[in-house]
Specification:
Radius of gyration: 22 Å
Largest sheet: 7 strands, mixed
Number of strands: 10
Keywords: Coiled coil
Order of helices and strands: HHEEHHHEEEHHHEEHEEE
Low-confidence stretches: 1-5, 22-29, 115-172
Protein name: Zinc-binding protein
Pfam families: ZrgA
Mean pLDDT: 76
Number of helices: 9
InterPro entries: ZrgA-like (IPR021253)
Shape: globular
Strand content: 25-35%
Distance between the termini: 24 Å
Organism: Vibrio galatheae
Strand order of the largest sheet: 5-4-6-2-1-8-9
Length: 232
């Protein structure tokens, strides 16, 4: 969405400022279990909230689900996060409505989003690759059958698959969730604070690191268990 770009840029600048003030803040936070980062930015009537959370805080693990129970936990967590009202409560007087939201995670060694078009495009590209490989295969078969048989052995890509598995395992150890809620508010001046239900939803989280950037405020806050109010 076009409106999201300046807001996201504002968040980046704000977080960079906080990070500079607290050296290594974001790098250190990236994989600290029990700590979740929330970025909140407001520009006019637009409000953007971003959450970055360790996988273990959300589902209890940071790797690809390896059982039906873990798969259910993942699906349940995504379902909770896909509803912004489950996570945040905004003053009704502000008239804020969710215009865009996204939930993604890296528990499978790569980013998985709730956007089905993303998966479709990936499958489409894969099919095109397969068709191209098939055409080359056919051409080689007509040109030289013996060379084709040798090529078949190569097409197994066993070494490459092993390499991918290695990257997959390395990345799994730092699996995390990224969530974004983009609101349009009819009266943003009525929004003085935001209530969060994060601790109730995901009780293993010990603290929330909150970066706030609004038309009148720039601050870095920390909420401990029991704290639910984010002042704007």
């Amino acid at each position: 969405m076009k409106n999201i770009t300046p807001i996201a840029l504002g968040i980046t600048l704000a977080v960079s400022t906080f990070a500079h003030a607290e050296q290594g803040y974001r790098q250190h936070d990236a994989h600290v279990h029990g700590e979740v980062e929330i970025n909140i930015a407001q520009d006019g009537n637009e409000l953007l909230m971003e959450i970055t959370a360790p996988g273990v805080d959300v589902v209890g693990f940071e790797h690809q689900p390896n059982s039906e129970q873990q798969q259910r936990l993942l699906e349940q967590a995504i379902a909770k996060l896909e509803r912004a009202e489950n996570v945040f409560t905004l003053a009704k007087a502000a008239g804020c409505k969710v215009e865009h939201q996204s939930v993604s995670h890296t528990l499978g060694g790569h980013e998985d989003e709730d956007d089905h078009d993303h998966d479709h495009d990936h499958d489409h590209d894969h099919d095109q690759h397969d068709d191209h490989a098939h055409d080359n295969h056919k051409h080689e078969n007509e040109h030289n059958h013996d060379e084709h048989e040798g090529h078949e052995g190569h097409e197994g890509h066993e070494g490459h698959e092993g390499h991918e598995g290695h990257d997959h395992d390395d990345h799994d150890s730092h699996g995390q969730f990224s969530v974004e809620y983009h609101y349009d508010c009819s009266d943003i001046s009525a929004l003085n604070s935001i209530e969060t239900q994060w601790f109730a939803l995901f009780p293993t989280t010990e603290s929330l690191k909150v970066n706030v950037l609004t038309d009148s405020k720039q601050a870095a806050l920390e909420l401990a268990k029991g704290d639910t109010k984010i002042s704007l």
